[in-house]
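Re: that backbone. Tokens:
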């Protein structure tokens, strides 16, 4: 079954991200299974919120230039890790290197799809998006557009914001009709 063509001016609403979760150092992390990336990368802020001890697992990175569509990306180091896709018939563990970016603002790990094919993980974006692991093509794992875990990242303490609320906003008068 195909999607209905979106109305004029609404084509941007037809796209979907293939998001799922993995285990990394026994901690759940959100990943975007992405076709366009040439490396696996993550922003330092998301990594700090998800895996506070991330600095204990780093390797140096050579002088390499990275860029996204909109700007240059600044690599800090390489995170050597195993990522685990959970499966009831046996999870898939993949040894990988994730480039930690200083200025990546994504609230998830960006994982290139071709690195998964080696391990029998196939992604299909037809009918809502799903992925399969190994030969069992009947067992489908759904990809979601916005997992609820992503929203939890915003709960990370921002001391500047807390100070502003305590010092400045406390005196603000809010119109009750708003």
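Recovered sequence:
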């Amino acid at each position: 079954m195909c999607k209905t063509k979106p109305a004029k001016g609404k084509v941007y609403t037809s796209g979907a991200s293939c998001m799922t979760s993995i285990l990394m150092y026994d901690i759940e992390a959100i990943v975007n299974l992405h076709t366009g990336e040439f490396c696996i990368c993550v922003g330092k802020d998301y990594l700090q919120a998800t895996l506070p001890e991330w600095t204990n697992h780093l390797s140096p990175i050579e002088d390499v230039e990275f860029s996204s569509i909109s700007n240059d990306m600044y690599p800090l180091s390489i995170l050597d890790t195993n990522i685990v896709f959970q499966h009831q018939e046996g999870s898939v563990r993949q040894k990988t290197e994730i480039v930690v970016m200083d200025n990546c603002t994504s609230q998830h790990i960006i994982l290139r799809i071709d690195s998964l094919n080696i391990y029998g993980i196939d992604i299909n974006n037809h009918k809502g998006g799903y992925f399969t692991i190994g030969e069992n093509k009947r067992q489908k794992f759904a990809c979601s557009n916005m997992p609820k875990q992503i929203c939890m990242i915003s709960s990370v303490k921002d001391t500047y914001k807390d100070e502003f609320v305590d010092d400045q906003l406390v005196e603000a008068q809010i119109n009750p009709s708003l």
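The chain has one domain: 11-147. Helices lie at 44-50, 114-117, 148-152, 159-167.
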